């Protein structure tokens, strides 16, 4: 009996070890994290020009946003002048909408771009992998490709698949460069691109973000006045203190 029991323990340990093996996609996440974990910035502020485009490519409207982030997991967007009290908070796995300094809605909705563009470098790999799986990425599927003339690793799809939810990573710099997201309905795939990467502190910042649908740019963000590792008031990411927190932007 003891021999049988011992054999069962050994088999169980092997099964546990097999289950603990990271998937191919998780290994990519780990490589991203390990490249910059000791140097990536932990706070970021910038001014953002947000532009929406008509189907003919002309501008539909333009807004100025003011953004502040504390990584991992916290992003504040002031839409228009901060004194107007309009914007959104992304705190861990929640999205909170603010109008006139008051909460108008909240959903359990993690921000994929916050996770892939920033949090991945500043939080445990297991946490990032857990959130990405919950967000619909199949971390067992990966393939190699090229993007803008550079080698990339694609996570979430096999070669030739452009309809599954997937993210693309520059294979040399281990930076997130593209997200293909079919959404939850039957609508078109959104193609989100992180462009124009520039060195910032011990990390990087894509100073332009584009969203394409059907091959056409429908929305674009351009960042200026980016600053990292500045001291920020923790109250900035508390909905109850949205209007009273010490704001980082001074006109």
Question: Care to describe what's here?
Answer:
The structure is a single chain. This protein has 251 residues and is α+β, with helices and mostly antiparallel strands. Helix content is 19%, strand content 42%. The protein contains 4 helices and 13 strands. Strands 6-5-4-3-2-1-13-12-11-10-9-8-7 form a 13-stranded antiparallel β-sheet. A hairpin with a 2-residue loop joins strand 12 and strand 13 (216-228). Helix 2 (24-36) packs across helix 4 (125-134). The longest helix is centred in the N-terminal third of the chain and has 19 residues, at 2-20. The termini are far apart. The model is unreliable at 1-18 (pLDDT under 50).
**Tally of alpha and pi helices:** 4
Task: Tell me the β content.
Answer: 35-45%
Order of helices and strands: HHEEEEEEHHEEEEEEE
Name the strands of the widest sheet in spatial order.
Answer: 6-5-4-3-2-1-13-12-11-10-9-8-7
| Main sheet summary | 13 strands, antiparallel
Radius of gyration: 21 Å
Mean pLDDT: 91
Separation of termini? 78 Å
Global outline: globular
User: What is the share of helical residues?
Assistant: 10-25%
Descriptive tags:
251 residues, disordered N terminus, 13 strands, globular, alpha+beta
Describe the secondary-structure layout.
Layout: H1 2-20, H2 24-36, E1 43-53, E2 59-70, E3 74-79, E4 87-91, E5 94-99, E6 102-108, H3 112-117, H4 125-134, E7 142-147, E8 150-155, E9 166-170, E10 176-181, E11 190-200, E12 203-213, E13 216-228
Antiparallel strand pairs: 1-2, 1-13, 2-3, 3-4, 4-5, 5-6, 7-8, 8-9, 9-10, 10-11, 11-12, 12-13
Helix pairs in contact: 2-4
